[in-house]
UniProtKB/TrEMBL annotation:
One of its GO terms (molecular function) is oxidoreductase activity. This is NADP-dependent oxidoreductase. InterPro entries: ADH-like_N, ER, GroES-like_sf, NAD(P)-bd_dom_sf, YIM1/Zinc_Alcohol_DH_Fams. CDD domains: MDR_like_2. Its EC number is 1.-.-.-. It holds the Pfam family ADH_zinc_N_2. Coiled coil: none annotated. It is an enzyme of class 1 (oxidoreductase). Residues 12-306 form the Enoyl reductase (ER) domain. It comes from the Bacteria. Keywords: Oxidoreductase. SUPFAM superfamilies: GroES-like, NAD(P)-binding Rossmann-fold domains.
Length: 309
């Protein structure tokens, strides 16, 4: 039997991707086969497809993109993961991705779908959730009483960061566009700076800044921090490290997909601590349109999701 999947055979613009029939992988011990119902579309997917990260991440082509997916187990050789179980999956970056109607993954890359989430929300959970949980919990160790600033607070990762930091008792501020200001305030942020109308660099007294943007945004974040504060950054535009100048700690949050992390992300969703934000939705066959929208910078807040028939 074959699987229908989006693939690209060479790096390039969105239209290098096409829906194709690919051979199904056999199931090995400790693995499950998941019939996917939805897949999240991440900025990393587009950067990989465009060939922008070839020096850092050498993919084997042709490539089925996508990390996040949600669906139902249809075949299992893994203990505790029965057929019929709704699950979220985190695909291996270097293997088959989630832009497909089925996928084979090891048990360590599967968590039960939180009952609190729709299928689309579940497909927008694990990758953004890991990118929020690791910086907040492991890197910065946010706790009650801290004052934190989250850049790009309306995005898939930033919105989860806001919700988690609030849960941990921090005072949370965020930056976003003026169009998304009310939505970010509705998440519970104490203050929101609309970067297209206001200058966040006038803020002072923060314990942590989470930088999901880089470049000029990173550079202007240093004065915002207290001496001894932390500037935590994720992969983005190039940065200029100025920690010694401002007497702050600058650290890159290294995102992984360890089972401990995936379980923690799902547990927080089950406990209603956070809810992923879903933006526009496209059919699987229109993945190229989804990537074009993502790269245009005109996508609505939250994660784009592909619906899989």
């Amino acid at each position: 039997m074959n699987t229908q999947a989006i693939r690209y055979h060479q790096y390039g613009p969105p239209d290098v991707m096409a829906l194709e029939a690919i051979a199904q992988f056999p199931l090995e011990p400790g693995q499950v086969r998941v019939s996917l119902r939805a897949a999240g579309v991440a900025p990393l997917d587009a950067k990989l497809r465009a060939g922008l990260l070839q020096a850092q991440l050498a993919l084997t082509l042709p490539k089925v993109p996508g990390r996040d997916g949600a669906g139902v187990i249809v075949e299992s050789r893994a203990e505790g993961l029965p057929v019929g179980e709704p699950v979220c999956v985190m695909a291996d970056m270097f293997g088959q991705g989630s832009y497909a109607d089925s996928i084979v993954v090891p048990a360590a890359r599967v968590v039960r779908q939180p009952s609190t989430l729709s299928t689309r929300q579940a497909a927008a959970l694990l990758q953004p959730g890991a990118s929020a949980w690791i910086p907040i919990v492991k890197t910065a160790q946010v706790r009650s009483g801290m004052k934190v600033l989250v850049h790009a607070g309306s995005g898939a990762v930033g919105s989860l960061m806001i919700q988690l930091a609030l849960h941990l008792g921090a005072e949370v501020w965020a930056t976003c566009s003026s169009a998304n200001r009310d939505d970010v305030l509705a998440l519970g942020a104490a203050g929101v700076i609309a970067y297209d109308k206001e200058d966040f660099s006038a803020l002072r007294g923060f314990d942590v800044v989470f930088d999901l943007v880089g470049g000029n945004t990173h550079d202007r974040s240093y004065p915002v921090l207290k001496p001894g504060g932390q500037l935590v950054w994720l992969v983005a535009s190039a940065i200029r490290e100025r920690g010694e100048e401002f007497k702050v700690r600058v650290v890159r949050a290294m995102i992984d997909d360890a089972p401990e992390c995936l379980r923690a992300v799902a547990k927080l969703a089950e406990e209603r601590v956070w809810v992923p934000t879903v933006g526009q939705c496209f059919p699987l066959a229109e993945a190229a349109r989804a990537h074009a929208l993502l790269e245009s910078g005109k996508a609505a807040r939250g994660r784009i999701v592909l619906d899989i028939p």
